[in-house]
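Session log. Operator J.P. requested a structure for one protein chain; no other inputs attached. Running the standard single-chain path with token output.
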Amino acid sequence: MVFHSVHRIEHWRLDRLIRYAKNPRIHPDEQVSEIAASIVAFGFNNPIAVDADGNIIAGEGRLLAAQKLGLTQVPIIILAHLTEVQKNAYRIADNRIPLNAGWDEARLNDELTRLQNEDIELDLLGFEDEELVRLLTAQDPTNFLTDEDDAPELPSVITSCSSLMAPTNPMSEG
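Structure written below.
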């Protein structure tokens, strides 16, 4: 199996990039704003993938965010090894495969709490407010388990057994 790797990142002017007209992935304004805020906070760390002619293969949301921010250049990588069919397939795979991942919510809670304690703005992470509240207030169910030695002791003298006995039916014959 041959793996193609990208050897360098280039910076291209936005007007060189061509959006894919049949892109099935949509980017609502709110999401573009989230991407833009992430770029401002963390940098433009994920280059836009293009072919040699500047057709966007992956990263249209990042392009829209760059436009929103008024950037004139963005980092790109050229994926010259892909056929036209592979470009179309990768456009979908690049967007769909990450959706198949899940979260270890206990670890996520730990990370979010740590970031919150470091004064990182959690709204930069892409979670809805309600979801952040749920994640940050989630309790580990094992916190409520007790050791058997921690259980309260029974009284040494039982004063009534009536509550321990099964109820009887006075109409039944015994």
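Operator note: The chain is about 35% helix and 10% strand.
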